[in-house]
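Our collaborator T.R. sent over the components below with a one-line note: 'Predict the complex.' Nothing else. No constraints on interfaces, no templates requested, no preferences about which chain binds where. So this is a plain run: every listed entity goes in together, and whatever single assembly comes back becomes the starting point for the next discussion.
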Amino acid sequence: MAIMNMVQSINSALDIKLGEDNKILSFGEDAGVEGGVFRVTEGLYQKYGEKRVFDTPLAESGIIGTAVGMCVSGLRPVAEIQFSGFVYPGFDQIISHVSRMHNRSRGKYRMSMVIRMPYGGGIKAIEHHSESMEALFAHIPGLKVVIPSTPYDAKGLLISAIEDNDPVVFMEPKRMYRAIKQEVPEDKYTIPLGKAKVVHQGTDITVVSFGALMKESIAAVEIAKQAGISVELIDLRTISPIDRETVAASICKTGRLLSVTEGPTSFGVGAEMITLANEEAFLYLEAPPTRLAGFDTIVPLPKGEHLYFHSPERIFYEIKKLAEY
Amino acid sequence: MFKKYDPLKGEMLEIMDKKGKITNKEMMPELDDEKVIDAYKLIHYSRMVDLKAVSYQRQGRMYTYPPNLGQEAAAVGVSTVMRDIDWLVPAYRELGAYLTKGATPKDIYLYWGGHEDGSRFPGAPNLLPIAVPIATQLLHAVGIAHGLKYQEKEGVVFACIGDGGTSEGDFHEAMNFAAVWKVPVVFLCQNNQYAISLPTKKQTAVDCIAVKAVAYGMPGIRVDGNDFFSCYAAAKAAHDHAQSGNGPVFIEALTYRRGAHTTADDPSKYRSKEEEQAWEDKDPAIRLKQYLMDKKLWSDEQEEELLEKYNKEVERQFLEFENYPKYKLEDVFQYMYTEMPSHLVKQKQKYEEFLAWKESQ
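Returned assembly:
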């Protein structure tokens, strides 16, 4: 077992899949020779050659649109978008074709691709480099949206995403890229898509989160424990489709739900969690299902970003209010 | 050919004039008479499917439809070049080429008649569905060509677009990617001079769209898009260029949409009767017929017989469309993912419960 951070574990997943299947190609802006601006694809160009791992012109619609054509011709592209804040020129391709071609062609053309992108804030970055817009993708029928929170999960989930026959938007929490290291098997393993993970068992309240906020949520669980509140913490892992069963079972057990997300509050994943609580656990609820999400504002530039992102204390504050409801 | 007909010098490849006379013998492609007759037949076959679609739409038996009338030569020129291993990535006004690739009139009617099964094209493995968002499909063509090149498979991808589509960002990205990657794509731009109501001069500041190819580093050529021979000759040269590993080519076929943009459009709002008449005189079917008649390869009797045959065949296919199995709830859900996820199973079940309740009332 090796010790890896998330950059290394994602690299390991790509390495394993590129080695296994020559229908898999990895490409994006600066994702070839240089190995990507975060070095996630480092060494892969050198190992697999320019035909398998390459730099593209600077054009997101071009990257995703050509990936659609590659899928039609039988390949399994893994496209990298340099930052999620730059994906918008490629949105037309994602909505109009990636998510629809399989349905449009009545199953004739599978869009077996992964679109990887770093997302989320907290690294004191320039404008357009801090947003968590997972809800935009999760709202599109035909896509799957996966977000890992740890190096171990990132590798297993990415391998599953690459092997999945449907298109997967794989969002990588960039503030976790090098934030923690853990033991990660060097060999291949998979983590199923569409399955959430109960990270911490508890009885008083269910907290559901994903991505970089899992770290703050775990810290909040510890604070809550000191305060005598037993929290069940769930990492969604897959944002779409949501593992309704795992979340519902937990809410039925605890009677309380707090959804913790980073993207804008309105119409976000938190709204979906609250709906889920209503639909699946209404008679078990002991407090109003609640969401802690980002403000419905633009994420502030570095001088103001501490006001936007949730600290463990902020999450604990909401846990406490709900526990005492 | 591409050097000789330099778009920067305003050149346009013209081989046959509007009277069906070969005025440019040097560029006249070598084609068996049989092939020319087949091309002429295909113009009529696609025209039969097309005119009937407009008529069925007016009768309320189909939905909105974009007619091809008057601009069949480019699609038929490409059709005559395409091999089974070549791909066609359509926009939505290249009917003759879809039919050549293996789509049936029934497929066409299914699609414009409002059923997704009309995009399945079971008889056409290398034909993509019609692309409604303008110019987005060009990138798919480049991706397919990249896949062919990577897998060392033979084949050329024909990517279709209109004059309006050249203003879209994806046009630029596709032209650029294709040239940088040096992949076997032939871009076919049917410049029918209007994007719905907008004339080409308000679409682009250049007189000749083919010049745009120059800046991407690929050959571009403008051809008389109502002359089958010019369209064929350019498509053949482009196909040879691309298949030989020299990268993409851009063809602008200058033509005219004689009908409306779609059955929901009224061209009298934006163009004159005189203009329409002038282009009717250059109709590709009339020209090619004159050529064949002059060579004693075709007669009015043959034409009458052919049209009668096509009429019956196309009507039969339309009835197949009209008798197609009813749309089922399953059809809404089953192709969203390769396996139906539980939330969709649940949504479908809820609707079935409603249907059962409604039935019981």
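Summary for T.R.: The CA atoms of residues 221 and 251 of chain B lie 5 Å apart.
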